[in-house]
Amino acid sequence: MATVAEPTAVMDQTVIHPPKRLLYGPGPGQVHPRVYQAMAQPIVGHLDAYFFQISNEIQQLLRKVFGTKNEMTFLISATGSGGMETAISNFVTPGTKVASFGNGYFCDRQAEMARRHGGNVVRLEKPWGEVFSDEEAANFIHLEKPQVVTYVHAETSSGALQKGDAICKAAHEVGALVVADCVTSLGALPVEIDKTGIDIAYSCSQKGLSCPPGLAPLTVSPRALEHLKSRTTPNSSWYFDISLIADYLVHSHRYHHTASATMFYALREGLALIDEEGLEKRWERHHKAHLEFVKKVETLGLEMHVPSPANRIWNLNTVKVPQGVDDAKVRATLLKEEGIEIAGGFGPLAGKIFRVGLMGPLATSESVHHFMHCFESALRGAGYKGRIG
Ligand SMILES: Cc1ncc(COP(=O)(O)O)c(C=O)c1O
Questions:
Q1: Do 373 and 264 share a structural domain?
Q2: Is the pTM of this model over 0.90?
Q3: How far is the CA of 252 from the centre of ligand 1 (A)?
Q4: Ligand 1 centre from 274 Cα, in Å?
């Protein structure tokens, strides 16, 4: 008969002591102290008038950060992948032709979800780190004439930023809806939903918004909503059905699920912090930190993975691992000696890049300086002999 092993160590049953980390990875990013304070407030029920007041304030603040007038702008109780599943499951039905731009891991996830919802997926692919030109995007869409187009704005697996204007223009010319993944970009660099012409966009709470993971901001254009109304079958996902969630959060406030007041408080505070700073100033702060980072990286004789500066994500930097250096050793030293978390590459970029996030509270000159000091020392410890920074 199977037995359950007794725990070997005695647990401290009263309190936990998580290690203090500096989150310089691709996400979660560092959480602002005011967000932690907001999370310590007493919860109210998910149908309390105060909960809906907070939810409404979040909706207003989210519209600003997304750069949209879309009424349907609210939070999905899930991580970024839940935002993705909401976007895909509501607009892809069996037989829907989906044109997927594929230049990284999260583009692949969009395509896989579309397939699972019965979509007929056609792909245009590029190596991880490259982006699609306006002409390539338009040609692909005009050739395939899809009903839905998917792309990832800031591809966290590679560090590449894919502009959406040409994709949206071509998609609308053939009558398609555009689904954009803004998981890494929202709150750190311009997303501009309405100006770009994106129909459905989703994000997460744990990167550019400086909150813990657990919520997925979503925005849906009136055009996409019209499309949704014409659906003849209900969404096969009950939890991610936009009409049901909108009924709860926007219209009748009827129970759909038990949303976390704690996480809503967190996001309300994270968005208020952005509003107080000013969105453009926040973008500028992330841009400046990124440029300082690149300069220091190049001074050290290292190379960025994304060749063109215009195609680099400001809050997620990918640096090539220099010849002969074991990236895992560098990451382990940073974690052990400095409490600094960064990430390596995976898939085709495994062992080839470091992924360094400069998000929210860590997107400052001091933070870049501190990180580069520790990074150089960890690289030297792993045998890097390049230029002295
Ligand atoms: C671009 C992108 N899309 C989607 C996701 C999935 O988000 P989550 O891990 O919050 O489910 C991530 C996560 O890092 C991401 O970077």
A1: no
A2: yes
A3: 31
A4: 21
